[in-house]
Every structure is written in structure tokens, then in C-alpha cells.
């Protein structure tokens, strides 16, 4: 993942390996979760997280309970997102 400021300047990048990822869908959700963790660790207060999976993005934005295979990841993303 890449963190850019409001001017598009790269401020940080990170790569993470996960084992037992069952699908690209789950991988996208984990990438979003890792992005929220990185933003929190950097102390950034305002951020826009972008990704390739519209489904993951919509699940993160939704206020309804997610009942998919990535439910716990989405819950963690939402929890982390409340901190910035």
C-alpha cells in the first residue's frame, strides 16, 4: 500500500505477507485493514483509503452488519476508521 498526502506526495509505503488468504476478495479486505493500521500508527487524522474492490469499499462504508466471509475484517476496519 502507498500513503500519499493531499498533494499526492508519497509519505509511506508498506507490503505485508499473509498466509492462508482464501481469495483476492479477502486479500483486498486485509489490505484495507493494514492501511487503517498504518494510518493510525502515523498519526494521520484525515485520510481517504482507496482500493480495487468496490465490494470491500462498500462494505466498509455501510452501517449495516456484514455477514460475509470478511465480516470480522470489516468490523476491525470500521473500528480503526473511527480513530481518524
UniProtKB/TrEMBL annotation:
Domain of life the protein comes from: Eukaryota
GO molecular function: nucleic acid binding; RNA-DNA hybrid ribonuclease activity
InterPro entries with a match to the protein in the record: RNase_H-like_dom_plant (IPR044730), RNase_H-like_EbsB-rel (IPR052929), RNaseH-like_sf (IPR012337), RNaseH_domain (IPR002156), RNaseH_sf (IPR036397)
Domain named RNase H type-1: residues: 1-84
Pfam annotation, one family: RVT_3
PANTHER family in alphabetical order: BNAC02G40300D PROTEIN, RNASE H TYPE-1 DOMAIN-CONTAINING PROTEIN
Protein name, UniProt field: RNase H type-1 domain-containing protein
Organism whose genome encodes this protein: Gossypium schwendimanii (Cotton)
Amino acid at each position: 500500500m502507498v500513503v500519499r498526502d493531499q498533494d499526492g506526495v508519497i509519505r509511506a509505503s508498506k507490503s505485508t505477507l499473509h498466509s492462508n488468504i482464501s481469495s483476492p476478495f479477502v486479500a483486498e479486505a486485509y489490505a484495507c485493514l493494514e492501511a487503517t493500521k498504518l494510518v493510525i500508527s502515523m498519526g494521520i487524522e484525515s485520510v481517504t483509503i482507496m482500493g480495487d474492490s468496490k465490494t470491500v469499499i462498500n462494505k466498509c462504508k455501510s452501517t449495516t452488519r456484514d455477514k460475509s466471509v470478511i465480516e470480522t475484517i470489516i468490523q476491525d476496519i470500521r473500528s480503526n476508521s473511527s480513530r481518524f
